[in-house]
Amino acid sequence: MVPAGRRRKVSAAVKRAGAEALLVTQVADVRYLCGFTGSNAALIVRGSRLTMFTDGRYATQAKMEVDGADVVIVIDKPVAVAACEWAVAEGVKRCGFDAGVTTVGALEGLKAALPAKLRRSFFVAMRGLVAGLREVKDEIEQERMREAAALGCRLFDQVLELVVPGATEFEIALALEYMARSEGAEGMSFETIVAGGARSALPHGRATSAKIPRRGFVVMDFGVVLHGYCSDMTRTVHMGAARKDEFEVYEAVLAAQEAGVAAAKAGVTAGEIDNATRSVLVQAGLAEWFTHSTGHGVGLEVHEAPRLGKTQTQRLKAGMVVTIEPGVYLPGKFGVRIEDTVLVTGEGCEILTGTTKAWIEL
Ligand code: ZN
Ligand code: ZN
Q: Which residues surround ligand 1, an ion (CB under 5 A)?
């Protein structure tokens, strides 16, 4: 079941944007609006009516999954072309498309399929119209995200016993992924990051055949996909006894992360949350090593709007689900990142990834 509210919102947004219809080609957007999980689909939103186009491989699946949209099976052409031709036949003269999704090449292909008189005027570039609706999660989505995050937390607790000197990063990633699938996850939200020793200083250190060292940090950043929704969390543990500088960096990152969580609340701008985490690291003299933004939205995709960066003026709304993930990376030495996924509320936020952030020494 797809809540009817999503269809109402999208048709109102299309109207506000001044188009007669909207072409949706991003699969997560299509899924959000009509429940279809296949990999090839286009959707036309016209007034309160949704029509989805997919190919013959998905005829049965579309029947089972699609809710609130008519389905057209396309045999001999790209689904987006078929969708545009259908819209033209229905009398649509101006159709929105997502300029953040459709490539220049794809747009040329779509224009070529239009009658000559419509080629210049038919398409209206819109950016992230459906992505904007997806930022605020409805109750069904909030519950799914709680479940996905809770599964991520359970897996982290279970995998800790495998984090031993000599084990490879691959082995730890594999164990996480195997357990995730065993527990019903459809897959991982992104390539699992397990980065030990000096590799912990790589902000995006995908697991390799490197062995977990006897002493030093291990950063683990991973997520599962459960019922279509992604989880995302990072914890950093330490092998053996820590040196003072390692402990101090960890404490600073933790304080920064907690400051970000404390700042998260409906009405606050994304930039203010970034500032909350960053200013703690400025105080600690570590800000130059915090080389990415504070966080991002999570939902059907692991990285979606909004972005929590320094210059973002967008205000958070209740129902947004975002990550707060400051890190400090000292090249060639070590790195620490701590990441929670939180649900923004009117009073503050609910931490969905409740696993302890206290120092863990293995
Ligand atoms: Zn992450
Ligand atoms: Zn993240």
A: 221, 232, 234, 339
